[in-house]
UniProtKB/TrEMBL annotation:
It comes from Turnix velox. SUPFAM superfamilies: MHC antigen-recognition domain. The chain crosses the membrane at residues 183-205. Gene3D superfamilies: MHC class I-like antigen recognition-like. GO terms for cellular component: extracellular space. The keyword Glycoprotein applies. This is EPCR protein. It comes from the Eukaryota. GO terms for biological process: negative regulation of coagulation. GO terms for molecular function: signaling receptor activity. The gene is Procr. Keywords: Glycoprotein, Membrane, Transmembrane, Transmembrane helix. PANTHER family: ENDOTHELIAL PROTEIN C RECEPTOR. The keyword rRNA-binding does not apply.
Length: 211
């Protein structure tokens, strides 16, 4: 369906991780203004829309696969030390919206087994607990994520700048705004993985043991 000129342009990434008995399964997608732009199936990540040149996208693919491999190995290690006998599903949803007046809003939400777990407050680059029980798992994950620039300042920069640049370039192509496009676009596709390392530490060290 055609998008209303008054509606915000949106770039959204969703990434799921299913962990069971030490094994990890990944899947996810990204959409730009309602159109599928990226797809993640296991360790295969593809660019459906040509948002990045082929050489830049090849590097991005390698970065994502390397990160997912690191996460998988961490889960295997934690599982040997502290076995978890039930399945856990972690979902990261992040992105940004660009409104017709030029203002933007970015977001990052994390759920664990279908329940709100953490969210990232973009303006001041802080993680906030959403876990209803407020237990040690969420508290530990929040503390770990706040330790590193990659999961605070770098994530804030991605959501406020790179993500919004994508939408600004899209709006120019659609004739919704005037201005100069940032070419080439640096997509910086992370599909939620930038936070997964910290999540793994929090969830798998705390679950079944004390933090």
């Amino acid at each position: 369906c055609p998008v209303s000129p008054a509606a915000p342009l949106t770039f959204t990434m969703q990434q799921w991780t299913r962990v069971s008995k030490g094994s990890s399964i990944f899947w996810g997608n990204a959409s730009l203004d309602g159109r599928l732009s990226h797809l993640l199936e296991g360790f295969n990540v593809t660019q459906v829309l040509p948002l990045e040149p082929s050489d830049a996208w090849a590097r991005r693919q390698k970065e994502v696969v390397t990160y997912l491999n690191t996460f998988r190995q961490l889960v295997q290690l934690f599982s040997k030390e502290r076995p978890v006998n039930y399945t856990q599903i972690l979902c990261c949803r992040l992105g940004c919206r660009l409104f017709p007046n030029g203002t933007a809003h970015s977001f990052y939400e994390v759920t664990l087994n279908g329940t709100a777990f953490l969210s990232f407050h973009v303006p001041n680059a802080t993680w906030q607990r959403r876990w209803p029980r407020g237990d040690a798992v969420a508290a530990y994950a929040e503390g770990e994520l706040m330790k590193y620039s990659k999961t605070t300042q770098d994530l804030q920069l991605f959501l406020n700048t790179t993500c919004v640049d994508i939408l600004q370039a899209q709006s120019i192509r659609m004739g919704l705004q005037s201005g100069r496009s940032h070419v080439p676009l640096v997509l910086g596709l992370i599909l939620g993985t930038v936070a997964l390392l910290g999540m793994a530490v929090g969830i798998f060290l705390c679950t079944g043991g004390s933090c």
